[in-house]
Structure formats: C-alpha cells, structure tokens
Amino acid sequence: MVEVMFYDGSHEGEWNAFVAQSKNGTFLFDRRYMDYHRDRFVDSSLMVYRDGKLFALLPANRVGNRLCSHGGLTYGGLVTGSEASAKAVLEAFEAVNGFLCSAGIAAVTYKAIPWIYHRVPAEEDLYALFRVCGARLVAREISSAIILPHRLKWHRDRRYGINRCRNNGVEVGQSDDFGAFWPLLDDNLMRCHGVHPVHSLAEIQLLKERFPRNIVLYLARRDGEVLGGTVLYLTPQVVHAQYISASPEGKSLRVIDAIYNKILNDDFADGLYFDFGKSTEYGGQVLNESLIYQKEGFGGRGVCYDTYEWEVG
C-alpha cells in the first residue's frame, strides 16, 4: 500500500535520515539547508510511504494550484533509497498524482536530479514521468562536467593563465573569509548580469556553519588583495561550483585558471565528477557561449539539467 503526505516539521529527523542514506539525495535536500529560506516559499514537500515505511521524498513548494520542485534548489526530483524498483516508483507516482488531485493541485513542474549526482542509478522517475504522468520536457539547460578519472586536456589558454598567475605572485587556497569574497562576487554579478548572488552573505555564512564539510571557499590573492574565488558544494559524487567570480584585475591575471588548477589537479584530483554549473538562460533557450567556452577549456563536457511538466488528474 502506498500513502502520500505533505511534510511538516515534526518529520525533520525522519526526512534528513532518509536523505542521508538515499541513492540520489544530497545535502541540499537536508531540511537544515532547505529551510534557511522557508519564508520565501510555501513548502509543499511530499513524503511517500510504502507498506508503512518511508519510500521516497519530493522536495517541493506550491505556487497557486501548481506543485513545483523546490524553487530554492537547482534540482529536486524524487529522492529514493537503493531498494526502489521501477515498478515501485511507477506506483509511487500514481499515488502522488492521486494525492495531489485530492489536494487541489492541477499541475506539476519537476526538476530532475542530474545523473552525476546519483550514487546508484536512479532514473526510475524519468520512466514514470513518461509512463504514468505523460510529462513533457519544458526546459533543458546544459552544464559542463568533468569525469575526473578520465579528464580531457585543457585548452592552451587555460595553461597560459596558470603561468601568468604564478609569475605575478598570485596565491590560491581555501579560506573561510566569505566576507572578503562576497562584495567582489556581488559587484561582478551586477555588472555582468544585473543580479545579486542567490545567497546573501549572512545566508552563505549560516549554511557554511551548518554544513562545514560540504561548502568550501577558494580565494586567489595577491599581496593580500582578493582577486577572485569560487564556492564549492561537495556531495558524495560531485564537486559543484556554486559561484565563480573574479575582479577586473583578477580577470586580467586569469586567476580563475589558477584556482581551478589547484582544485582539479591538486585538492580534488581523486574525486569522481566536477560540475561547473549551467551556462544557459531562459530554460536553455540562450547559451552563454563565452561562459561555456571557459568551462570546456578545463575539459568540461555537457550534462543536462531537465525540467518537466504535467497536468494532474
């Protein structure tokens, strides 16, 4: 028997324990991460039970009569355990649709978890979207990832940047000084894209305190001045670049090349995947060619972040 319910705070421990042992969950689904911005979303996450045992989670929020994969997360599909079979996931989606219909939900927007984040193959949900939901693909964004044990050669200009930094006294290393990086990041995003970082300085500091092993900052400095940096999110399968930014001087010196040389060739050389993040806008309709060129110069190649929609009922 499959039962579905909305999450509430009394289930936080059960939720977090399930995420920790799941085959495709990451720390972004931990309620201590999801709830840092609870005031911005009407949380409507789902918990799916099979024969009385928690079987799956769906991080989500409600917008009117639509259920959306949680708007504060880059991805947010069905989180399952290693025992989840294709048949059981089909039954779970049938139950979810029935539950949502009775709750007055008319449609669903679903952001699938990219396969590189799966500790065990976990695309039963994609089959269920086709078989049970009749879902349609509405957005496909492309990220650039590296399989670290089988990396490609860097472009020549990336190697030039490393030498330029070395010759100009640029030093790269981990740091907890988010306060030194955030104004640079904010200024760069405003000048280039007219937006602020998704996280405020206070929010990223809070999340760093809650997840000290999962959130890491690298800075490039010369004579003590911060010229650039990157914030990494560390998950069991993937090192993900959450933010990348450099000052005008840092761009001239090519400090991003030096930062990723240390990350990819030294500190995380024995990892599995490195994900530079998306290089698209408007659901994938616009490709930022200069941005993806930089990532491909480090050996990154395409991994898609897909979004689906379907009507309930």
Kindly describe this structure:
The protein has 313 residues and is an alpha+beta fold. The chain contains 10 helices and 16 strands. The protein is elongated, with a radius of gyration of 21 Å. The mean pLDDT is 96. The two termini are 20 Å apart. 34% of the residues lie in helices and 31% in strands. Helix 3 (86-102) packs across helix 4 (124-133). The longest helix is centred in the first third of the chain and has 17 residues, at 86-102. Strand 4 (60-63) and strand 5 (66-69) form a beta hairpin. Strands 4-5-7-16-8-13-12-11-10-9 form a 10-stranded mixed β-sheet. The protein has a 4-stranded antiparallel β-sheet with strand order 1-2-3-6, sandwiched between helices.
